[in-house]
Amino acid sequence: MQNTANAAGTDGPELVDTAPLVEDLYPALAELREAGPVHRIAGTDGRPAWLVTRYEDVRRLFADPRLALDKRHAAPGNFSGFSLPPALDANLLNMDPPDHTRVRRLVVKAFTPGRVEKLREPVRRVAEELLDAIEPDGRADLLAAYAGQLPIIVICDLLGVPQRDRRDFRAWSDALITPDPARPRAAKEAVGSMLRFYTELIAKKRAEPADDLLSDLIRVRDDEAGDGGGDGSGDGRLSEDELTSLAFLILLAGYENTVHLIANSVLTLLDHPAALQELREDPSGIAAAFDELARYEGPASLGIRRFPLEDIEIGGVTIPAGETVLLSMASAHRDPAHFKDPDEFNPHLGRSGHLALGHGIHYCLGAPLARMEMETALAALLRRFPGLRLDVPRERLGWRPTIRARGLISLPVAW
Fold it and tell me: What is the 3-state secondary structure (H, E, C) of the chain?
């Protein structure tokens, strides 16, 4: 992999070309990992960033309190990222303790394993209905018709989003996660649409509360405000911007990662027919295979960007305070220093410690829900369609053109 000229004009090593990370991810990461633990690249916003590639470093840094998520700790001119309005930007992906602790505590009870398990049967029914709709056709784009539908239905039901308001969500999500260079205004338009959507939804829930998570969060917010708080400044408080941002994050994260976790797992099994047949014959093995599926082809290549609060050393490289650090889970998961035969998919090896759902205080809030949805989606699919196969040559499948996420553009299958 070649270095490129430092087009950003900042001091430091030349930037590593990130095009191979889009075109051929794992071989490109292997080359970087072998060359060194940290590399200077053009980040997701086009500005210089430090990419960490080796498992032990990535795992340790996920839990290192010297790395902040709050963008206010970025050095001037170092980071741009998404241009979100305050009503969407006050979310957990831009928070450090104590604000992160306070806001997370208000919603974590909705995603405990016990509460999520109660949703398994409703999720199974949704999966069966989606498969009923496509079964007569004998073929479908499984990403659009199944993997892309199930998570949005589940998370919208959990939050209490009306059926009629769900149709544009995937387009908004795609515009934010994988911006189209040919439509430079699409991401900004999606942000505006989402802000109007959440503002109107919260107003409706205030007027007509229901038995759903968003109504519960509104009650928490309004009860605190009625006691003279609710500005987010004290322990247990929730500001209006934090309320809107929390709804935004739950819906976006609950949709985006789970879609690609399901689709990537299906592709992995189609690529490994012996494992697919084994799980079809014994669906109880799907739960045990989850960790290996998430490690082998997880939905996120990078963790959320971080900013050192002080100069820190990573793998012998000193990174100045305020510069952008990107932790590569995709590279960590293929690190032979930690995982035996990491480029092989083998659910029987019992390889633990994947980072697909994060690590430390920012571990994925919805991890139990994502796990349950993936297990349920795979079990239903393998049982219903025993002849499941790719409907196009394997080499024609394309991945989304971003270094941030690992997701298919489509997954044409037949049965």
Answer: CCEECCCCCCCCCCEECCHHHHHCHHHHHHHHHHHCCEEEEECCCCCEEEEECCHHHHHHHHCCCCEECCHHHCCCCCCCCCCCCHHHHCCHHHCCCCHHHHHHHHHHHHHCHHHHHCCHHHHHHHHHHHHHHHHHHCEEEHHHHHHCCHHHHHHHHHHCCCHHHCCCHHHHHHHHHCCCCCCCCHHHHHHHHHHHHHHHHHHHHHHCCCCCHHHHHHHHHHHHHHCCCCCCCCCCCCCHHHHHHHHHHHHHHHHHHHHHHHHHHHHHHHHCHHHHHHHHHCCCHHHHHHHHHHHHCCCECECCCEEECCCEEECCEEECCCCCEEEEHHHHCCCCCCCCCCCCCCCCCCCCCCCCCCCHHHCCCCHHHHHHHHHHHHHHHHHHCCCCEECCCHHHCCECCCCCECCECCCEEEC
Per-residue model confidence (pLDDT) at position 236? 60
Pairing relationship of beta strands 325-327 and 48-52 according to DSSP bridges: parallel
Task: Count CB neighbours of 351 within 10 A.
Answer: 18
Look up the pTM and report it: 0.90
Q: Residue 337 class from Cβ within 10 Å (0-12 exposed, 13-18 middle, 19+ buried)?
A: exposed
Q: Is 286 left (phi over 0), alpha (psi -120 to 50) or beta?
A: alpha
Separation of alpha carbons 82 and 321, rounded Å: 21
Omega before 393 within 30 of 0, i.e. cis: no
Rounded Cα distance, 176 and 178, in Å: 6
Which residues are bridge partners to 104 per DSSP?
Answer: none
User: Which residues of the chain fall below pLDDT 50?
Assistant: 3-10, 226-230, 232-235
Tens of pLDDT, residue by residue over 240-298, are 999 999 999 988 888 889 999 999 999 999 999 999 999 999 999 999 999 999 999 99
Note whether 407 and 400 are within 8 A (CB). yes
Q: What is the pLDDT of residue 107?
A: 86
Do the beta carbons of residue 382 and residue 23 sit within 8 Å?
no
- What number of CA atoms fall less than 13 Å from residue 188's CA on the CB side? 4
**Model confidence pLDDT, tens digit, residues 348-377:** 987 889 999 999 999 998 999 999 999 999
Q: How many residues does the chain have?
A: 415
